[in-house]
Amino acid sequence: MQRQRAIEHWLARLFPGKAFSLAPASSDASFRRYFRVTWQDATTAIVMDAPPAHEDLHPWLQVQQLFHAAGAAVPDILARELEQGFLLISDLGATTYLDILRHATPQQAYPHYLAALDTLVDIQRASRAGMLPEYDRALLKRELDLFPDWYVARHLGVEMGNAQRQQLAAVFEKILTVNLAEPKVYVHRDYHSRNLMLPVAAGKPGVIDFQDAVYGPISYDLVSLLKDAYIEWEEEQALDWLIRYWEKARQADLPVNPDFAVFHRDYEWMGVQRHLKVLGIFARLYHRDGKDGYLKDMPLVAKYLRGAVSRYDELTPLRRLLDLLEDKVTVFGHTMPAGQLKAKP
């Protein structure tokens, strides 16, 4: 309440004499919160509340400039108070892609995905080295380590032996080698249905939650979008959209592999890295941060992971580990209804 009162005082100073109401808009997995400001004339804006002790607004501001220059529909900056951690930004609405797509047929979803792919190509085409942090080996490996540390050990209560750890480490090195060999572009890192808003301008989706963007593998955001942790499409449909992207990327002279089979392999292995990370993050959000809202999404993430590792012999040690974990919890076998996963104490 103290920060909300500080926001109200800030807005009153910015717009003297203009009455407004303030209501929660959304929150995310970090310390950031969002409020929707509504004035008497029905105009609205969004206040981002990023406590300086926990959040740095400068990365958001930098990526906003880069993505805006690329032609993406990101929020405009209306006012800032960096010392207190406040931003006033334009309101992209309250309807996410997920809100639309969870009730859509593939045919109804098609134009939304094509628009999202067009925006992604625009962002990637604007990429320049040295503008964003590198998605380097150290960061990719740190993310992979979330899986054994938080998902396997803490969430499932499974203690791996030395041989298993060595095998997993060897697989991690293979995954990293493929990931790091990809061409590099701007990477949103969470380019999925919860961070894309109902098209706001010329059919473009609004793009939010981009403050963690990096410069890294070109297939990463495609995995986020087409192997979305929050909504599932048939593999054939996702593959069709992937082909559409590959064609658009080649037309835009992006550095995608001219051999689609190789490009698809890279995409799959990037998915393995992301889904191992996401399982670890969802477990950490629950055990460390007390946020259980992501537990219901674990089975779908695990399904993507299982599908990919079953297709590549080089990932056999990881598949065997998943086989062992199935004896501990049915999440990898998908026999448990979503939302019924029980965490280990």
TrEMBL record:
One of its GO terms (molecular function) is ATP binding. Its EC number is 2.7.1.221. Residues 22-246 form the Aminoglycoside phosphotransferase domain. It is an enzyme of class 2 (transferase). It comes from the Bacteria. Keywords: ATP-binding, Kinase, Nucleotide-binding, Transferase. PANTHER family: N-ACETYLMURAMATE_N-ACETYLGLUCOSAMINE KINASE (PTHR33540:SF1), TRNA THREONYLCARBAMOYLADENOSINE BIOSYNTHESIS PROTEIN TSAE (PTHR33540). This is N-acetylmuramate/N-acetylglucosamine kinase. It comes from Georgfuchsia toluolica. The lineage of its organism: Bacteria, Pseudomonadati, Pseudomonadota, Betaproteobacteria, Nitrosomonadales.
